[in-house]
């Protein structure tokens, strides 16, 4: 029964996972392919006229380089927010969705522990996030030459995509943890999405409002603060995202194990 929960979850979500992976990759590739026009069209000069606070918040200070452009628009805004939404939507269904639908009772009637159930659902989330990151990575390599992104190495693209995977897992872990602790899908969606927006704002605006330390409380800081598109894999940041995910899942599962589910 134990491996079957993971396998069944992956199979049940295979179409949604493919749709998320293709959709996120298409968005990223579409905007990444605009880089030649941006670099040649004088957009960097136009951005220089923006208020300094806006340039810093939106990471617009270097739009002329491939790493600067992708780090601001594609990997700095669009893809991380989409990865966050994927993680939150999957995580909210993983435990809380089943509990509200009455399916959780049926699952726990089999010889499977609550911890085992939650961890295998989390493993399915990880599988989906890895699939999304892999499709984005392969897509970026496919357009790398034609979109004039050769200044970014394969390893640097890989590093940024690994962090994208870890970011999606982090917010999925948050939703799974909240769902396991509360059993209510609606509040989980609202709470996890709200925290995602707040932490993104904290990462973007902390320096502007004079509280730079606040960005260290945001997963987005560890996702892109080390600029993997320029500097490659930042192992400390990746480890921090993994640690946050583990802590969220452990906290939620601990509460899940003690909660009265009437089963």
Automatic annotation (TrEMBL):
Segments passing through the bilayer: 16-34, 66-88, 122-145, 157-181, 188-214, 234-253
GO cellular component terms, semicolon-separated: plasma membrane
Pfam family, one: ABC2_membrane_2
Protein name as it appears in the record: ABC-2 type transport system permease protein
Species: Nocardia tenerifensis
Superkingdom field: Bacteria
GO molecular function, one term: ABC-type transporter activity
Keyword Lyase carried by entry: no
UniProt key word ATP-binding: no
Keywords assigned: Membrane, Transmembrane, Transmembrane helix
């Amino acid at each position: 029964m134990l491996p079957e929960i993971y396998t069944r979850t992956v199979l049940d979500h295979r179409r949604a996972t493919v749709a998320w992976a293709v959709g996120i990759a298409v968005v990223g590739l579409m905007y990444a392919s605009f880089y030649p026009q941006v670099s040649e069209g004088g957009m960097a000069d136009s951005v220089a006229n923006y208020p300094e606070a806006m340039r810093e918040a939106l990471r617009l200070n270097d739009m002329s380089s491939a790493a600067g452009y992708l780090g601001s628009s594609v990997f700095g805004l669009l893809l991380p927010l989409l990865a966050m939404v994927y993680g939150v939507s999957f995580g909210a269904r993983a435990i809380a969705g089943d509990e509200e639908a009455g399916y959780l009772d049926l699952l726990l009637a089999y010889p499977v522990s609550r911890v085992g159930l939650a961890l295998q659902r989390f493993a399915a989330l990880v599988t989906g996030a890895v699939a999304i990151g892999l499709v984005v990575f392969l897509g970026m390599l496919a357009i790398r030459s034609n979109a004039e992104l050769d200044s970014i190495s394969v390893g640097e693209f890989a590093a940024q995509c690994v962090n994208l995977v870890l970011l999606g897992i982090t917010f999925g872990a948050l939703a799974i943890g909240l769902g396991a602790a509360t059993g209510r899908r609606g509040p989980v969606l609202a709470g996890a999405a709200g925290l995602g927006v707040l932490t993104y704002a904290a990462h973007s605006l902390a320096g502007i409002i004079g509280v730079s330390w606040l960005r260290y409380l945001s997963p987005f800081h560890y996702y892109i603060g080390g600029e993997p598109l320029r500097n490659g894999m930042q192992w400390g940041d990746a480890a921090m995202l993994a640690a946050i995910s583990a802590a969220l899942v452990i906290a939620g599962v601990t509460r899940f194990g003690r909660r009265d589910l009437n089963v």
